Amino acid sequence: MTENEIIREIKKISLDDDHRFSFIAKYIVQNLSVVPESTIKEMAEYTYTSVATINRFTKYLNLDGYKELIHVVKYFNHNIKAEDDILKSADNNGFIYGIYHNIVRSLHDTFRLTLGHKEKISEIINKIKTARRINIFAVGGTYNVAKDFQEKILRLGFNAISVNDFHNGYFLAKNSTSEDLTIVVSYSGETQDLIKLARIAQENACPILLVCKKANNTISKIADYQITISSNESIERTISSTSRFALLFALDIIYYNLLSSDLEKYQTILDNTIINKF
After folding, report:
1. By C-alpha distance, which of 175, 155, 190, 173 is closest to 269?
2. How far apart are the C-alpha atoms of 122 and 119, rounded to whole Å?
3. Backbone region of residue 181 per phi and psi (left: phi > 0; alpha: psi in -120 to 50; beta: other values)
4. How confident is the model at residue 235, as a pLDDT?
5. Does domain 3-92 sit in CATH 3.30.9.10?
6. Superfamily for 118-272?
7. Over residues 7-26, mean pLDDT
8. Is 103 within 8 Å of 205 (Cβ atoms)?
9. Hey, where are the domains in the chain?
10. What is the mean pLDDT of residues 56-68?
11. What is the 3-state secondary structure (H, E, C) of 127-151?
12. Are residues 66 and 43 in contact, defined by beta-carbon separation less than 8 angstroms?
């Protein structure tokens, strides 16, 4: 088979949920731009399989091994890039293309970061499940991301509150205890109001989870748990798109790990809380 025929075969497999290699094929199709940078061990981790399974997949495609699979993807990407260059020059959409590729790269790198913190995420899930109340603090556009997470876990039956103003945050932080959990969503980890709220929570012995970009910031020195995202946007950014997607994705990883910790229970809750709109 030619390189393009192999890619078409991978796409075909990805659409067949009953196929034994469906999940691997889906990951490759959805992450063509980053697959060439992944080792076979990383690919196994990303697809929740094993190195042996990846090797079986390459043999199924009649390839000589993982290196040839990477060659095929690189060849395909090269052709796609040529098409992209034509489109960009024709429509002057280079700016949009740049944002798109930055978002894809950011999500992939954030996923890689979280893979290395499975035990930490497990601790966070346990803390969420045992918390009396979950206070979620964020400001500006980042609050929309925090609010989305709050609504998701609220639907699962958790006592979660999200605020984006200092006064209401102050009341919640002041009344927090060691039985609660404070979640701070901050790209920089240096927002002054959020630093103040985190310090108040700390004074009350309330555990703190920080979701941010920089590993070394003021709130990270206060927090008990930290999930770091990947984003190439500067801290002094004027337009936040990549960072917003990465923060949302990081919180979704926590959410889906929470779901999978007791899937049958939470699936029943989700089914029982569907709002009939018609």
Report:
1. 155
2. 5
3. beta
4. 46
5. no
6. Glucose-6-phosphate isomerase like protein; domain 1 (3.40.50.10490)
7. 92
8. no
9. 3-92, 118-272
10. 93
11. HHHHCCCEEEECCCCHHHHHHHHHH
12. yes
